[in-house]
Request: fold
Amino acid sequence: MKSWYILAITALMLFGIERFLYKVSAERRCNTAWTMFSFMTTVAVISTTLFFLSDRHIPDLQFLFMISLINSAAFFLGTVSQIEALKCIPTNIAYPIIRLNTILVVLFSTMYFKDQLSTAQILGIIIAICVIFWMTSHSYGGETASRQVTKGLVLTGIALFSGAVAAISSKFAAVNTNTLGFIALSYIMGSFFSLFSRKGLHSNAVNSNLKDAVIIGIGMGLVNIGGFYCFLSALRTGPLSIIITVVGMHFIVAIVLSSFIYREKIALSRIAGIALTVIALVLMRS
Reply:
């Protein structure tokens, strides 16, 4: 089994736990700005420390700054959109739609990076994308249209495109610059984004106990830094089209955890989708 595939599976699990913590934040009605600030700051502090303790060589400082800015802005916007969307619609509606960004990334990767894929890997990608469409098409049973639902769907659309930009920029960074330097600079920028936007993201409906937001944010940060490092390490040697498809299935982990913790029902169609996800992951390991 290829090392980049193992790293991608590890990133899948860690990102799945992180996305579940988004749900926890939404359920507790935490202040999104403070959750994001503690999240970003945690990753920034840890990655900066590790950067100075390791190889600090940076081939092109200007490139590092630009790619970090693009990635940080896209990731921040996508993360905020996801957390806010989860305050309006259930996890099993939001995440499958957001993961449609896999299609955009796969198309870009095959055209730009000329990924060489085996028949099994292509079949795995097709099955994975079908799973996302399947779970999305079964997301609206029993839902009634409302302003909250509409707002949630708009936010998931923003998260979808932001996630695609973040993933593509991560590939460029993984191949062309220092991994820890990229993580550190991206999250330092993200910390400033979240700090400056704290008033705009505050509302009277949120939990006034900032302690909850900070604790959840730190938890997100600890899980994220491991997942992001594994993701970038996989991208350094593996094909973006396969890795983004594997890692993109992390929403399954969040849905399963939400079903156990928050008693969100999983229909038979979703169980079938989870089973197909496992099949797709097996096919893509070749």
